[in-house]
Amino acid sequence: MSNHSRIVTPGPGRPRWVAPSTRSELVYLSWGSRDFSKSPIPEHHNPGWSYVVICSGTVRISQGPKERSLGSSECLLAGPGCSYGLRHAKGERCELLVWIFRSAPNHSPLGLGTDLFQTVTLDTETRRFVENLHAQTREEISRVRDFFEPSVIHIRELLDIQIMRSLHGPRKESVQDRRLTLAYDWMLNNLELNDPVRSLCDYLQISQSTLHRLFRDHYSMAPGAVHRRLRVQEAQRLIEEEGWQVKQAAYRLGYHHANDLSRALSRAVADETTSN
């Protein structure tokens, strides 16, 4: 088989885009449903670094006598020195997304040379993010004369980061875990607020009911109660470790009056005594 690189387009009518310029960083883009039993992609070398994401179904990747299946949420990365073909058995179909970029990835281990052939499984959240990146790329191809190149380079950078994260294994944190981490850190940096819930919802871009459910499930407390506890703990630290007066700590932490902090400290001591 010849090592001459070429783009092999899908069957008639299938959505695709080929760069009008030989200098464009984005060489080729395609998307949508495929039936490679009717229009198989023969083994060939693409003129760049290929990213093939399977959104649903499966596809068979051929490399000489070898063949393997790529299933939903899997991604194939192939350098220009790596030949491969795509095919289906009768009745098989898939939905896929394809990018071909002219230059090599900037990040190891994605940039290991032109013979790169790597598959990686994307979790649901990552796959949706990648699907959105492809949608953004499709939007950009209608603006080839309007900052197209820097936009494509930026999208490719985000795509590579998602794949790098996936190569390091599945995400260990759920969306809820990350929201809780952000919420907790936000509270620590906004202890002076007397009504934090609305501002925290705005920060996380979630509803108050979602925020309350999140805190009830994790802390068995309302978010306002968690914020008040953190506020009192910081007041105790300032008074006991930093030597602040109650009035100073109350002013620093947004209490209306020093007596408000005194009462909060007394309740905290009483609660601790009761729990012990």
Folded structure, characterized:
- This protein has 276 residues and is α+β, with helices and mostly antiparallel strands.
- It has 2 domains: 16-167, Regulatory protein AraC (Jelly Rolls), CATH 2.60.120.280; 175-275, Orthogonal Bundle (Arc Repressor Mutant, subunit A).
- The chain is built from 8 helices and 10 strands.
- The strands form 2 sheets. The chain has a 6-stranded antiparallel sheet with strand order 1-2-9-4-7-10, covered by helices on one side. It has a 4-stranded antiparallel sheet with strand order 3-8-5-6, with no helix packed on it.
- Helix 1 (124-140) runs antiparallel to helix 2, helix 3 (175-188) packs across helix 4 and helix 6 (223-240) packs across helix 8.
- It starts with 15 loop residues before the first strand and ends with a helix.
- The relative contact order is 0.09.
- The mean pLDDT is 90.
- One of its GO terms (molecular function) is DNA-binding transcription factor activity.
- Residues 181-276 form the HTH araC/xylS-type domain.
- This is Transcriptional activator FtrA.
- It comes from Novipirellula herctigrandis.
- Keywords: DNA-binding, Transcription, Transcription regulation.
